[in-house]
Amino acid sequence: MKRSQYIYIFITISLCVWVTLYVWSYHKKVKNRNAYIAFHKMAYSESKMKNLASEIQGLAEINQDKVPTNITELIVWFLSDPLLVECLKDDMYFKKLVETGKFHDEWNNPVKLVVESPRKYIFISSGANGKDENGKGDDITYAFDPLEMRLKGKEQVILKTQGTM
Question: For the whole prediction, is pTM greater than 0.85?
Fold first, then answer.
């Protein structure tokens, strides 16, 4: 073989190796980017659950009435508080909750409110795969006590009146 043929073979193999490495690195970046996006969607969904749980706890402390046991009761409960409606009227997430009557995660899947007991509520999102696995698999869960803030407030009042605080 002539020297020019060896050069041609070398250039062809080099080009193939370069294309292979470029495609591999691009795929790796896309895969990492998708994992990054999925992680942030999961974190933001959990953050929404925590915020909604805080609103439930705050309203329970203020209103001192029955805590809602499902999403529909929750919306009615929120709308019954004019101060909360005024504060959240420009919040896009709150508007969607009231308009659709559903609480959605970042994948636009409905989030369930499960009441295990009067002191244990659980939000369950079906996660990225969209399958309801009852809190297993990739489901995102957030458990909270709807009466927690109210009890802490009462305990503080009791401690203040006893002079121990």
Answer: no
